[in-house]
Each structure stands twice: as C-alpha cells, then as structure tokens.
Amino acid sequence: MDIQKVTVAGGGVLGSQIALQSAYKGFDVTIWLRSEGSIERAKPKLERLRGIYKSTLEALKTDPSAWCRGLTDSADVPAEKIDELIARVDAAADSIKLTCSYDEAFGEADLVIEAIAEVLSEKEAFYAEACPHMAERAIVCTNSSTLLPSAIVGYTDRPGKFLALHFANNIWKNNTAEVMGQPATSASAYQAVVAFARAIGMIPLELKKEQPGYLLNSMLVPFLNAAEALLANDVADVETIDKAWMLGTGAPLGPFRILDIVGLSTAYNIVAASPDAANPDTTAGKIAAKLKSYIDAGKTGVNAGEGFYKYR
Amino acid sequence: MDIQKVTVAGGGVLGSQIALQSAYKGFDVTIWLRSEGSIERAKPKLERLRGIYKSTLEALKTDPSAWCRGLTDSADVPAEKIDELIARVDAAADSIKLTCSYDEAFGEADLVIEAIAEVLSEKEAFYAEACPHMAERAIVCTNSSTLLPSAIVGYTDRPGKFLALHFANNIWKNNTAEVMGQPATSASAYQAVVAFARAIGMIPLELKKEQPGYLLNSMLVPFLNAAEALLANDVADVETIDKAWMLGTGAPLGPFRILDIVGLSTAYNIVAASPDAANPDTTAGKIAAKLKSYIDAGKTGVNAGEGFYKYR
C-alpha cells in the first residue's frame, strides 16, 4: 500500500521525534494529542527538535563526525545541499498538524503510530476511541517497548493491520526501527511498515516473531545484568569491568557507561521486577541495593551529570 | 619482590605466547615441558610467534593500524627504534630455555606460570612434582580459564603465593591479564603479579575475589547466550541480530561475529553443559541443536573459513 499520511498518537519524547523525522522525510504528518494542554506541551518539544536537526546539519558542513544516519545518507554532503536540508527541516516542522480531534487526526491516515504512555488501560481506551475513526486501509503500529502487540491487538478492530514499530531514542541518530508483528499481522502490512521505516531514514530490523524486549534489549539486559552482578558481588570495580569489556571485545563503551546512558532508574526498575530482588542475599537483591545507593545520591546517569561516572 | 626469572610450565598456544612476551620484555624465561617430545613440539610454536612478532613490528613502520598494544607503548615509533625491537624479538626467542628437568626449570624461578592442560588431575600431578623444586620465594600463577585457583591451591605448598593470572589468546595484541587470587593469596604476591603483568606489556585487570569466567567471560557468556536464543527461537536471522547490537551499542562486532572468533565448538560445549540442553524443547536444547548443525557442516568459525559468516 502507499503510505502518505501519517498520524502519530502522542507528543512525548518519542512521539515528537517520530513526527518530525517522518515530516522531514516528506510525509504528511499529524500529531494527535489528548487535550489542548497536551498540544501546548508538545510544541516546545518540536521546536527543540527543529533546533537539534538544524544545528546538526549545520555542523556537518565542517565536521563529518556530526553525521547522523537518519538525516543524510552519508557524511559527505555539499554545503548547498545541506542548506536545502535545513530549509526542509523548517518546512517539515511547520507542516506538522497538532489536533485533539479523532476525526481530523485519524480519518485520512494511511499509517497510525501510537506512542502514548506504556499503560495497558490507556492503550485500551485510546484504541477503542480512535479505531472507529480510521479508514479501513489504515495500518496501525504501536511503539510500545514493554508491551507485546498481541497484548494490545484485541483493543483494535484490525488484527491483520496491527503490529509494533519500535524506535530508539534520538531517532535521527540512533536510526534503528524494530518491526515486530503479532500472529495475525498480514505479510503485506508488515512489509509496508518495513518500507515506511526505510523511507523515513531508519534501518529496519525485522523480527520474525514476538519477543519481549525486541532484539537489542533481549541482549542488553542480560549483558548489563551480568556486569551489575560483578559489581554488586564486589568482584571488581566499575572501571575494571568496563575495561575488561572494551579491551576484550573492542566495544567503544563498557557496561557502566551504557548504564549511565540508559539511566540507573530504568536499570533499577528492571532488576526490581525480579522476585529475588527483595532478598538482600541474592545477586538481584545486591544489584538492586547497589543501584539504589547511586539513585538515592542523585547519581542516576548522564542526564543527571553523574552516574557510575561523572559528566559535569 | 623482584621478579627476574620466569618459568612457564607448558608450551601450548598460551604457554608459548606468555614465554615469548615475557622474554621480549626483558625477563629471563624458561619453559618447562613434560618430555623431549613436548620440547620438539614447542619449538615450531615459538618460531611461528617469532615471525609474527617481527612481521607485526615491520608492518608498523608504514601502517599505524598494525599496532599491537603488547609490543610498543604507542603506534608512533621511529623506524630505527622498530629495528631495535625486531632485534630484541630475535634475542628474546633465542634466549628462551626449554627443559624437562624440574630442577633446572623451577630451582631458581621467581615466578612460575602454569599453562598446562585444563584437567584437574594433571594440574594435581604437576604441582605435586614441581613445588618441591621451587624456592620458597617463588610465586606461582595458574593461567587456567575454567578452574578456580581455590580448586588448585591445595595441590601446592604455598597458599599465600598462589593465584591466577589469566591471559587472552594473541597476548601481544589482546593484552589483558586478569589477576585473581584465592582466599589465602597474600596482598604482596597479588601486587607483585599485577606489576609483572604490567611489566610484560599487559593491562592488568584486578579481580577482588574469585569469579568463574573471570570478568570478560562472565559478561560474554550471558550476552552470547541471549543472542543464540534469539536465533534458536527463530526471532530473527544472524545478520539482523548482529545489526541490532552494532547499531544499538556502537560495537564493531555483533554476537555472531564474536562467536565465529570464539569458535562454535566452544560455544556448543558451554551450552551443552547446561542440564536443559538435552531437552530439544528448551531454549538451551534449541541452541545446542542449532550450533550442532553448523558444527556438523564443518562451519566451526573463522579458523575453519566459515561459521555464521564466510571468511574464505
């Protein structure tokens, strides 16, 4: 099918990025928001992104290391072409429609990307309200990180046209898009979403079946957990563990640098979900206690200026 | 203590590398071998390494990417200095003594590095025979990857001076040395080994307590296992899983490239050791079956020219 009109439901961190990236790559984009208040809160997010997109492109004129894979196909772009792209960012940001009308948002959409809160009851309420306003042809994707599409599909009216399209934060830079169907997803809807992901400058990563955590987190969580266990069991210090990983595998970042980026609160929530975490004698309990000691000291990661390492 | 005379027990892959690297960095090195036959088998290994060390240094004259951290402190070395280092490789290789006499090998050693087969009964027999020949001052390290030093220390006569010093393959390039004591290891012996590791061009990674798998493998095994599970459960293909890891973390290699380097037989042995592996319905059973299908087809990794990827 031919996707032209895209509606993003939700204007949060990811919703605003998906909207601007899609508009930048030439799609006709609407953001649906629950209220006028949400519209006002979404606007400064889009303005901030507009600035980041433009300054990143501007930097690329003199610094190839500024290259972000979602913005241009290569780092080698002539300055005049970059000026065109900067103008395109402005046109894209100006073109995005924000509305809380279901009809206006969903009536003509070819593709709907739902990026609302990760709360099943909120997803349920959203799909129950929104689906009746959508055209039959519309494909619907959830950007959920933690809920499987099979847990959500029952709230929609289109099992064959419902799947997950999962973005990473800072999508203009970290341009992977994990595509994951549920058992009823049709091959044509799946492939249309893969093509759309590619069309907005993403590298689609195709999952053949449902997997909690998709691909990246399915590997990252056990890896980070193993590193956390070494620290919590006092086998070695942060710097030594990171060095072992970087020197042993050639990776640019060790596990504790990655944890600082992910954020220690997220890491804590993952380990705290394990039943063992309540028992301080288990490895999970020791990891939870160790992470909590950092969090209680305000060291929650890069965004706080300090986590396992200092960034101030 | 002052370490000058180093004896390496065993002339296998790692033993020969540890011996040449130590001699190259100025130590007086002896290799103890079990028999005249073992001496004859060790000689070509040392000659091969001599050639690798010399050609790597020669390449560094024109190609900074040839730099190996164990050979020079930086990639920026003047050609005359490199010629001196090449001469030093020859002098080092020529200086290494090979013997099957316990007295000759161990009588004057300040440091003994045991790198014999990973079989507990062989370790037991070795230490029972060798320890009585050693000076009281001698520090003894095992290079064992799979046995903890506390499992071996009882065969020695020097609990305070016994610990693990664990090298990676191709130590002139992968120059990490994990240093791990057992409960009775003295702080002075531990620190002497850390200093020795540094003196032979290694980056010492200090473990504060015993940990099966040391640091690197403690993280690598669960990470690779998670990637193998994604493949064995048919969630995605090899290339997609590798791409997810590389794009998501900036790593130069995905898990299946790493598995090709590690070797699929080693990966198979690790998963086959799990009790679940015998049941084909479990994830471990599916991983074992998947790895076995590659191994049966001769695709055991980089060394075979093909594993998950082709290298021919």
TrEMBL record, chains A, B:
It is an enzyme of class 1 (oxidoreductase). Pathway: Lipid metabolism; fatty acid beta-oxidation; Lipid metabolism; butanoate metabolism. Keywords: Fatty acid metabolism, Lipid metabolism, NAD, Oxidoreductase. PANTHER family: HYDROXYACYL-COENZYME A DEHYDROGENASE, MITOCHONDRIAL, PTHR43561. Residues 5-208 form the 3-hydroxyacyl-CoA dehydrogenase NAD binding domain. Its EC number is 1.1.1.35. This is 3-hydroxyacyl-CoA dehydrogenase. It comes from Adlercreutzia shanghongiae. The lineage of its organism: Bacteria, Bacillati, Actinomycetota, Coriobacteriia, Eggerthellales. It catalyses: a (3S)-3-hydroxyacyl-CoA + NAD(+) = a 3-oxoacyl-CoA + NADH + H(+). SUPFAM superfamilies: 6-phosphogluconate dehydrogenase C-terminal domain-like, NAD(P)-binding Rossmann-fold domains. Residues 213-311 form the 3-hydroxyacyl-CoA dehydrogenase C-terminal domain. It holds the Pfam family 3HCDH_N. GO terms for molecular function: (3S)-3-hydroxyacyl-CoA dehydrogenase (NAD+) activity. It comes from the Bacteria. InterPro entries: 3-OHacyl-CoA_DH (IPR022694), 3-OHacyl-CoA_DH_NAD-bd (IPR006176), 3HC_DH_C (IPR006108), 6-PGluconate_DH-like_C_sf (IPR008927), 6PGD_dom2 (IPR013328), Mito_3-hydroxyacyl-CoA_DH (IPR052242), NAD(P)-bd_dom_sf (IPR036291).
